[in-house]
Amino acid sequence: MSKRHEIPATHESMVWGYFDSTTPPVLEVASGDTVTLHSFPAGGKETLPEDRSLVPPNYLTALDTMIQGPGPHFITGPVYVKGAQPGDTLQVDILNVKVSQDWGFVSILPLLGTLPDEFTDYETIHPKVDHERQVCIMPWGTEIALDPFFGIIGTAPPPAWGRCGSPVPRSFGGNMDNKELRPGTTLYLPVFNEGALFFAGDGHGVQGDGEVCITALETGVTGSFRLTVRKDMDITWPFAENATHLMSIGLDEDLDDAAKQAVREMVKHVCARTNLSRNQAYMLCSLAGNLRVTQLVDGNKGIHMLLPKAYL
Predict the structure, then answer these.
(1) Could you read off the pLDDT of 123-163 as tens digits, one per residue?
(2) Which of 133, 165, 303, 309 is deepest in the core (most CB within 10 A)?
(3) Which residues of 158-175 are buried (b: 16+ CB within 10 A; e: fewer)?
(4) Burial class (CB in 10 A: 0-12, 13-18, 19+), 10
(5) Which residues, in sequence order, are CB contacts of 259 under 8 Å at separation 6+?
(6) CA dihedral 40, 41, 42, 46 (to 10 degrees)
(7) Which H/E stretch holds residue 38?
(8) pLDDT tens-digit readout, 158-190
(9) CA 192 to CA 166: how far, in whole Å?
């Protein structure tokens, strides 16, 4: 029987700003178990609202006691999944995600974002979250429907890479900032370490394709994941699917190269799931695959392709 586990949002159960295969696991689970974890927003004290009573006490404690790495993201984990070995695949079924705070923040920050030279009047705003109506309310009155997800989902990087800063997404996943990785989606991640060492964090209440100003609605989220070790899948790069679509993921400093990778990955997975040749899969992607900009702001930019399963 699979079990359910929960990881609280405390400084003891998180890292701040990095991924490292030597980080001791905060939880050990069996393959097929479900883990519910809580997370804080990215950022520091400079992004908090003036009214500190709105800030969860555990968040303030984390800011005061944790040592920040090369990035701004609070990341919960790692979770050790029994039986996982390098070369395996970790199947991550995203079961649910919900916003856990009454506010979030959106920032324009120095030297960051898509237009850093054009937007130098730096500021941070704090939209309110209406949980009953599932919207966030901008300071000027616009209401935007919540669509929460974890900006960071990943396994630990290969040991030879040492400590990796949290901002740049790589082959282990990490800060992909992909809004399609919402409940009902299954993400497949390469395993580079014994136990897989699963992390998640960087809660987003809602985000547009591109995340152009550098932030989504950065906020606390709670989510549940079913973690399953797959010995029958041989992948070297993140891939995802939901009930209706396959999703390939491309990450590169150059957006063109990210697009090429997303197409290449989709062709590979279509061929693995069908009897189509590479040429046929490539042509199918041209007719039915939709490339979207995931994000433009994380060092390695992101492109993902969505292909309806109905055409397989």
Answers:
(1) 999 999 999 999 999 999 999 999 999 999 999 999 999 99
(2) 303
(3) beeeeebbbbbbbbbbbb
(4) middle
(5) 250, 291, 303
(6) -110
(7) strand 33-39
(8) 999 999 999 999 999 999 999 999 999 999 999
(9) 17
